[in-house]
Amino acid sequence: MxxxxxxxxxxxxxxxxxxxxxxxxxxxxxxxxxxxxALRALVREHDRPRGMIQVPFEDGCVSRERLTAAxxxxxxxxxxxxxxxxxxxxxxxxxxxxxxxxxxxxxxQGCLRSLADVDYPDYEVIVVDNRRAGAPPVDLPGVRVVRxxxxxxxxxxxxxxxxxxxxxxxxxxxxxxxxPGWLLAIATRFxxxxxxxxxxxxxxxxELETSAQVALEEYYGGxxxxxxxxxxxxxxxxGGCSLLRPATVDALxxxxxxxxxxxxxxxxxxxxxxxxxxxxxxxxxxxxxxALGAGTDARGGEDLLMFARxxxxxxxxxxxxxxxxxxxxRRDEASLxxxxxxxxxxxxxxxxxxxxxxxxxxxxxxxxxxxxxxVMTAGYRDKLDAGKQTNPRTRELARMELRGMAAGPVVYLRxxxxxxxxxxxxx
Length: 427
Known about the structure:
It is a single chain. This protein has about 425 residues and is of the alpha/beta class. The protein is about 35% helix and about 25% strand. Helix 7 runs parallel beside helix 8.
């Protein structure tokens, strides 16, 4: 796949240094040396994320004064920090499922090391080996390894769900490292919000060392939702037969603020690299759609489909920013292009899956269409307008995503047909 062209007037790329800053112990300075052009930092207060800042390095350094000034413009933290649960409270067992093709050995080892350091009293790690039949067995110390030879991340996740012993099942990927407080934040959220069937959280970059990694952050404004307030999502009128009624989801913060978005903008709920479910509910839903996700023709969408299915049936979906994972973005341009095309493909595929599962979605999509078309048109118009973009990749990436969307319905139908044919042939 060809390289994306850079404008001749573009300044040379410099990577961005990542850090975490606790307001209570702000460092005197952060050194970037001669390599980094800017500092991007997660700001925490009382052990909870407050926001992100980005400050350019001056003479290879960012002083405490400049850090403090950048932090000062962030929204104020919640009036009172959410207390961590007492160790005397009985915390539920959590099963962590990590699907893998064992192609990213360094990433998988980093993921497993981070899971070994998680601060939680009762959890298991299940690695699902998703290689084809005949691959040699693998032994990973300290974790349970199970095989799933059917291709696709959905099949692998469903296999992990099948053997999970936890009341909660959490999913992450083999290119992710989790925060030590990840599972505690998830368990606390479920305990305090018994109405929620699913919880997602923040996914921050683990590194921004290449132009492709920075381009992904700039293109989407972050990998997954980037809100720093806990949110509970609930659909206004789940299901139903009101043909032209907009399918609207309300996002309610703990301060009582509400914003709304279309059910079909399912990326606003969360993402698959950082999601957890009540195991019984996910089993009741039959797990993930085998025709969606990485490793299938559709490439993605299985996580967003599950969020939308939950909301459609009246369940609440939570977002807990204290549940943090760090994702290693694709480092090269060709991988980034494939990823963006796959996101477009998966998005249109999941919409197709929703309609096939419940034709009433078609009417609700028509009711939502006016607002959705305006929002999407405005967004892509800006991305395709060279005069409004500082990164020349944005236009190319937008075109790729749109091409993926155009192909999504047909590709999903093909993927679904192949899955069903394979299941019929199975002994």
